[in-house]
Design goal:
By secondary structure, the protein is of the alpha+beta class. Helix content is 30%, strand content 42%. GO terms for molecular function: nucleic acid binding. This is UPF0102 protein IM532_09205.
Length: 121
């Protein structure tokens, strides 16, 4: 496995722990639909969160959250629609970004709530 793959998996594992510690229920990890992948789908208080996890080891070039492009957002929306239809979900759905920065062995988190909406795209 490559270093970047291992780092990405480490970041996703941290994200799972982060949401579980906040009493979210993990519904799915690495949910695929066509060319799209949702890193995490979690639920709390009848709200479904579609989570894009972005991690970096430095923020000198670009903050992790800035790498979520319009194309990626559209892919996330299509995958979320598939998940919702297949699972008969009827309720609020939110798109969040969990931006992670790992420096000196410690994770810094920036949980961006309502990072984007399906309506704006």
């Amino acid at each position: 496995m490559s270093k970047s793959y291992d780092f990405g998996k480490e970041a996703e594992n941290f994200a799972v722990d982060y949401f579980e510690n906040l009493d979210y229920k993990i519904l799915a990890r690495n949910y695929f639909f066509q060319k799209a992948e949702i890193d995490l789908i979690v639920e709390k208080d009848n709200v479904i969160l579609i989570i894009e996890v972005k991690a970096r080891t430095t923020n000198h070039v670009n903050l992790p959250e800035n790498s979520v492009t319009t194309k990626k957002k559209k892919l996330l929306i299509s995958a979320a629609n598939d998940f919702i239809l297949k699972n008969g979900i009827d309720g609020e759905v939110r798109f969040d970004i969990l931006a992670l920065l790992k420096q000196k062995g410690e994770w810094e988190t920036n949980h961006i709530i309502n990072a984007f909406s399906a309506i704006e795209l």
